[in-house]
Amino acid sequence: MSANFEAKKVVVEEITQKIKAAKSVVFVDYNKLTVAEVSELRSKCREAGCDYKVYKNTLVRKALNDLGFKDFDADLNGPTAIAFGSDEMNAAKVMVAAAKDYDQKIVLKSAFVDNAYVDKNGVKALATMPSREELIAKMLGSLQAPVANLAGVLSNMISALPRALNAVAQSKAQ
Question: What is the pLDDT of residues 133-149, one digit of tens each?
Fold first, then answer.
């Protein structure tokens, strides 16, 4: 076997491992970005906890096909960059924001989330969802509200009792 073939096998294995390790994978067309914009986008991805890479479409297609996913074949045409996310939404949020920031120089293609194909509208929907931490905070706030309200009512009742006894005592004193 040729050295080139072996090198491609290594890259396909790398892509496969990245897809398996990522919670989300977002595919975008990056054709119109300048080098400076790509560098800026890579740093934004790092800050958000995702990895921005460009691989050959045939190698990405091979990796996805090896994993049993053929839905992405149509999206893997033309210049394609991939954002590997550490959670279900961070890569989508960064790429949707980048599409707005760079005046439509980035075009969303699709995503791979929870072992399923997500079209570009789904990617936009993922980007608008609150993060896991925000959802947990909202749920804890909802659970805490009844307890806090009960504590407030009990506190008012306890503080109202001495006032009522004082008012009764003053009325009897008069």
Answer: 787 888 888 888 787 77
CATH number, position 79: 3.30.70.1730
| Percentage of the chain lying above the pLDDT 70 cut | 99
Residues 59, 107: contact at Cβ < 8 Å?
no
Quickly count: other Cβ atoms within 10 Å of residue 83's Cβ.
Answer: 27
Tens digit of each residue's pLDDT (9 = 90 or more) over 72-120? 888 888 888 999 988 888 888 889 888 888 887 888 888 988 888 888 8
Looking at the fold, whether 122 and 139 belong to one and the same domain comes out as no
- Do 107 and 172 lie in one domain? The reply is no
